[in-house]
Amino acid sequence: MEWQFKTIARKSTLSGEAFNPGDRVVCLIYKDDQAGELGRADLLPDEIDHFDLPGEVLGRWTRVVKEPDEDGVNARETMASAEDFFFSLYENDQPDAQEESDALKHLLSLMLERKRVLRALGDRQTSGEQRYLHVKSKRQLQVPIVDISKELMLKIEDTLGDLIL
């Protein structure tokens, strides 16, 4: 199974206004308390205060919209979004969404390890936590190892759009 992050949306989740190259876009991943699912919103910075979040923010990062025909940029942008999102999960730990947050940390760490952004340290763990090194920053992180149920997988899949290709 291949995991992949969707690049920045073409328009704002709140206003529907199209993003233009050079625009800064704030990406939010949140837990919708009523629906019991995760959601994603891509917003212009001045729209954040007007966006009514239906739950707690799990991850938040900012990206700059690139020209649509820049080959190679999309792959780098996608990897940068995944990396930013991964780190934001550690900054925005939410007890009410711990299961989803831990699953996202686990899956993202595997993807980032495959892309050589992270490197596993020590023996490979099958339960508990796996220690990883972020190659660029030399930061070490403890990543929970999660058994991903079908229901949890569906929640995560719906959150990030087309994660699986």
Structure summarized in a few sentences:
The chain has helices spanning 73-91, 98-114, 150-159, and strands at residues 24-32, 37-43, 57-64, 118-121, 129-134, 140-144. The protein has 165 residues and is α+β, with helices and mostly antiparallel strands.
Structure description:
This protein is of the alpha+beta class and 165 residues long. It has one domain. Helices cover 28% and strands 24% of the residues. The strands form 2 sheets. Strands 2-1-3 form a 3-stranded antiparallel beta sheet. The chain has a 3-stranded antiparallel beta sheet with strand order 4-5-6, covered by helices on one side. A hairpin with a 7-residue loop joins strand 4 and strand 5. Helix 1 (73-91) runs antiparallel to helix 2 (98-114). The radius of gyration is 16 Å and the shape is globular.
Topology:
Layout: E1 24-32, E2 37-43, E3 57-64, H1 73-91, H2 98-114, E4 118-121, E5 129-134, E6 140-144, H3 150-159
Antiparallel strand pairs: 1-2, 1-3, 4-5, 5-6
The arrangement of helices and strands along the chain is EEEHHEEEH
Number of H- or I-type helical stretches: 3
Overall tally of structural domains: 1
Ends: how far apart?
7 Å
The largest beta-sheet arranges its strands as 2-1-3
Q: Mind summarizing the main beta sheet?
A: 3 strands, antiparallel
What is the number of strand segments?
Answer: 6
Counting helices, strands and paired strands, the structural category is: alpha+beta
Helix proportion: 25-40%
Ranges with pLDDT <50 over ≥5 residues? 161-165
Quick check: average pLDDT? 80
Kindly provide the radius of gyration, computed on alpha-carbon positions and rounded to a whole number of angstroms. Answer: 16 Å
Principal-axes geometry comes out as: globular
| Strand-residue proportion | 15-25%
